[in-house]
Amino acid sequence: MRLSFTSTNLHLGLSHYDWGVSTGEDDRDELIKELLAEAHGLRMKNEQISLYTESKIAELVKLQRELLTIRDGFETVVEQRNDLEGKLAQVNTELEHLGTIYTAMTDQRDRLRGRVAEVETSRAFRIGKRFIRFVPFLKEHENPTQ
């Protein structure tokens, strides 16, 4: 039902209830207003949720980039650790080899010291030392390395 406003209705000060508008139509108009307001509220809430979701997605993307950077750093650290473990294994092998050489050289030194001690305590060495004291010109040739 469509209402028309005429100058007669306005001059008489009649309200819309007086024009023949029923209460059911008023309730329907009020319900439409409420529904429109509710729809507007839902649109606003949807907008807020969208903004919140976009901000959280942006945060997640940022965190993902940071995690990728950290993962790359970890991969680099693992590679460096593996390289160092390989070098450490080589150094340990070399150390064991040097330890074996050291032990062999120490044994050889001890054997030579024992041999020198035997030679120095031998009768021939003592006689040779006495002989050099009696013949001084041989002393120059006694130790050619000095």
Could you describe the 3D structure shown?
By secondary structure, this protein is mainly α. The chain has one domain. The protein is built from 3 helices and no strands. The chain has helices at residues 7-12, 23-121, 123-134. It is rod-shaped and about 155 Å long.
Largest sheet: none
List low-pLDDT spans.
1-20
**Total E-strand runs:** 0
- Mean pLDDT, all residues: 84
**What's the total helix number?**
3
What count of structural domains? 1
Q: Fraction of residues in helices? A: over 70%
Q: Structural class of the secondary structure composition?
A: mainly alpha
Order of helices and strands: HHH
Apparent shape: rod-shaped
Strand content: under 5%
**From the alpha-carbon coordinates, what is the Rg to the nearest angstrom?**
55 Å
What is the CA–CA distance across the termini? 136 Å
Task: Show the helix and strand layout.
Blueprint (H helix, E strand, L loop, with lengths): L6 H6 L10 H99 L1 H12 L12
Summary of the model, kept short:
Helix content is 80%, strand content 0%. The protein is mostly helical. It starts with 6 loop residues before the first helix and ends in a 12-residue tail after the last helix.
Features:
single chain, 146 residues, mainly alpha, 3 helices, disordered N terminus
